[in-house]
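Sanity check. The docking grid for adenosine-5'-triphosphate depends on where the pocket ends up, so I'm generating a full predicted complex first rather than guessing from homology. Inputs follow.
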Amino acid sequence: MARDLDLEFVSLTKRYGDTIAVDAVSYHFGAGTYACLLGPSGCGKSSTLRMVAGHESVSDGSVLLGGRDISHLPPAKRGTAMMFQNYALFPHLSVADNVAFSLKMKGVDAAVRARHAGEMLELVDMSGFADRLPAQLSGGQQQRVALARALITEPDVLLLDEPLSALDPFLRIRMRAELKRLQRELGITFIHVTHGQDEALALADEIVVMNDARIEQAGPTRAVFDAPKTAFVARFLGSHNVIALAEGKVAVRSDALRIGAPEGAQLQGKITNIEYQGTHVSLTAAIAGAQEVTALLSDKDFFGAPKDLGEAVGLNWDSQAAHALSA
Ligand SMILES: Nc1ncnc2c1ncn2[C@@H]1O[C@H](COP(=O)(O)OP(=O)(O)OP(=O)(O)O)[C@@H](O)[C@H]1O
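Predicted complex below; grid placement will be based on this.
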């Protein structure tokens, strides 16, 4: 049962020798939030997650859960559980024994362990596989077992380190829906580390975009996507153009750009690429200052007034669609 405990990072810092992997990061996650930590390789996502789990020591600052400082508690005493990228199942133990492992360590008796493991396998839709070994399961099934094994400890916070990266693209999308369903059903906080902006947008109530050991921008997913504050966030989340104008840099979503006649348009350009994407057509145009912008048009709009490579066009957008960037 979820206990409604908020998770908070207070100036959380990780140093490995001279490397600062996480630099005084502060953030507050409301209880029951699905949050994604997002950012390029090496920005400090995994180090942050491992400090929360207790698999890495905290160099400075703290992690609070429900106001209690858990920074220096052993992993099993924190109220968190971690699901690893490679699932880390014990190859010689059956699915049921893998799931029940942490209860065995706690000295829970065999009948109670078996009952709890059965409930968890039911939760992840793996009841028929209790006696198999991990090697006899598909990647998606192993992932469900790893989830069941993490959830049996009844954590307040589930930590997921790139949980979908080992799956093929089709399964990844299916499992992503499963993760969301589980999180809703359990009502606990999920902190999910990913490289993938699509994954973060699809899953997260809140996203935390990290860059170079710090939080670059964080907040409700749609608010961040709709109004990136820096060029890094706009580019990293994708579907945005970063345009240098006389008054400064702005981010404009690709689907907010309109293509029309060059005369009197906010920007003039020449079409350099046209990509048919099924429901949409993506048009790239070269504009002044050796810049390129991309406009995403519905197939209806494009084929209603088709353009050719090399054609001069005008680009327009509504003023509220342009977000001034601070860096
Ligand atoms: N055990 C370690 N010893 C020394 N440096 C480390 C260690 N673990 C991570 N680092 C360094 O800390 C920084 C952050 O690493 P971290 O693994 O947290 O990044 P990440 O955002 O999770 O990257 P990825 O997406 O590639 O997993 C990197 O510069 C990395 O090289």
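Relevant for the grid: The longest strand covers residues 19-29.
Also worth noting: The pocket of adenosine-5'-triphosphate is lined by residues 16, 19, 21, 39, 41-47, 195 (CB under 6 Å).
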